[in-house]
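#random but structural
TW: two for the price of one
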Amino acid sequence: MKERGLPDYTKGPIIKALVGLSLPIVFANILQTAYQLIDTFWVGRLGAVAVAAVSLSFPVIFLMISLGGGLAIAGTILVAQYKGQGNRWQVDHVSGQTLLLMLVSSAAVSVLGYLISGPVMKLIGAGPEVLPEATSYLQISFIGMVFMFGFFVFQSLMRGVGDVKTPLYIVLATVLMNLVLDPLFILGWGPVPAYGVSGAAIATVGTQGVAAVIGLFLLFSGRYGIHLKPEHLRFDLPLFKKMFNLGLPASISQSARALGLGVMSFLVASFGTMTVASYGIGMRIFSFIIIPALGLSMATSTLVGQNLGAGHKERAGDIAKKSLQIGFVSLAVLGVILFLVARPLTAVFIPDDPAVIESGASFVRIMALSFGFVGLGHTLLGVFTGAGDTKATMIQSILALWVFQFPVAYILSKHTALSAEGIWWSFPVSNVLAAAVSYIWYSTGSWKHKLVIGPEELHLRQEILEEVVVDEGIQ
């Protein structure tokens, strides 16, 4: 098969490159979020207890994914920088090693997650009416974790080489499948029984499996910037060490966020099912609205990584500056819009419970006040990630949730008259403080010198090119 050409992001207009990468990522992330939104929509038809079960389960799933997610991020960083350097052999090799490690990790996560589902739900504080549904949803989700990890790696590697359209097409097809399978398995139809909350997990696992198989086939086809071969799946211990050192802070960063969400869920659960349902709906909306910031962050990561790999530090700095401006302004505008439509938007998810609608709308309005800083913070994470400065992302994550948000949420909700609303106010406080700390770090410029592929690999690249020339000359 003939390989498709990919754009050269180490030259040309920066805004055009940012838009060209960001938009497909944004659309793909919207579609990915649609999995959760579709689940919440149909599960919401079963009542507040069902919504609470899915809401309490999400942080646990996120945590288990985060334990292996750092390795995927390490692979993405290396692939982007090798792509900018022009070292195709290393791009393929790193991709194969990343896939291998993630498959092993997903198997371990599946077994561990399945076993701890019930005890963890009890620990978080799921009530007797929520516990069975939440446990079942979690266990089915963990059974299919290998598919989720597999497609996650495919998306990450494609983003590293600058191909963001192919994952978008795959996600679109699988979300359309999920749109049909969700009501089928949740509510039942004909010979298919109604599985309730568990049906949402069954539908998602099935569609994620289709996506993972397609992604794996494309990686081995060699048409999309990466060409995996069997030799790339042999363990490379020196590369594993590099990926571990690069990926460990990223894993800690993601795990810190996931654990923070879990602890927040525990705090939320102490205020009862209505607050849990309001929190779950609000977080679903929040995760959907910040997708533009996530898309811009991922695009920034790819562009910064490829340009640093090519030795273009000044261009990488210009990319970061323009990305930060776009991130702050665009999310601030979205925040204003969300503030104005908070109540009707909340009512879409659980139309027959006025108390949950009012509480959820209040949560959304309070969060919306700091969306500009959310955009700034996520874009800064993209800059640090692309440069390979994963320690910066780790520190920001720990500060945001464990130093700023949770203490504020606990104090305001448990020791002031705000009660549950105090949890809502912890979001703007942590968003502003975390973005400020990250911007100070960014301003030092130290991230420009965090290139994770050393000069000795430039010589390796030259030797490889010379060998190719000789071989072709002989042939």
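TW: number two ↓
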Amino acid sequence: MRIVFAGTPVFAAIALKALLAAGHEVSAVFCQPDRPAGRGQKLLFGPVKQVAIEHGLQVFQPTSLKEPDILEWIKSDPSQLWVVAAYGLLLPPVVLSSPPMGCLNIHASLLPRWRGAAPIHRAIQAGDHKTGVAIMQMEEGLDTGPILLEESIEIGPRDTTETLHNRLATLGAQTIVKALENLDFLRLNERKQSSEGVRYAHKIQKEEARINWMLPAAELERQIRAFTPSPGARFCYKEEMIKVGEAFVAALPPEIPKETPPGLVINNQSDLHVLTGQGVLRFTRLQRPGAKMLAAHDFLAGCPIPEGTQLD
């Protein structure tokens, strides 16, 4: 099948590779403009662009799909279908209606739960036990289109956004290939999304990464996993923002008085134990700004946080 592919990060690049390996003809690839990265702020190609260049594919990187020359190309392109995965730009109605078979989206959740920008983060943060991938016929609403195919997976108790992303990226690639193999049948049996159970996965804001010690330990543990590797959950100590790589819910020692304020360091032997609004959080991997992520024992050897310290 002749398709146009639109996507930017690793999640999308894995799907693009799978489509090419399955023998589909990709007439062009759309991805976000190159962004400066690293200390030198050099422009780096995104993962999808790298795959496209390796396969000699035509690449477009517009800041808007409403640019006249882009719209002219889209209207003249004979591709049957667009496949979209984590592209980063909304497709205007004229683009959605241009290909004869419309546009399909690879979305990393079981819709209608977690429509929007950060479905993997939000699923972990909310404590969901399962998630998956939905192949959706795109329409003007935000992830509101009918579902052609869904596949689900379990969310493990130690899954982070990184580990779950990697599993979902592989699943998404497999599922879109399967969907295109059975597209006529799936389109005849598409499922409209329910109006019940709708949740929006709003974009992650950096200020969300700050640990609020008033919250229960179980909720903070999920926040840490949800924000690993980025933006990374953090707490402040001596005017430095300490990034958390790993934490576990720990038992509350019986000798701790009920009136003890959350944020108090109650144990720093090997790991760092901090009292929360409900329970104790045991930090096992920590990182100072500009330094490497370390096991808590090694971190505390170089940056002691004494018992009795009240963290902000």
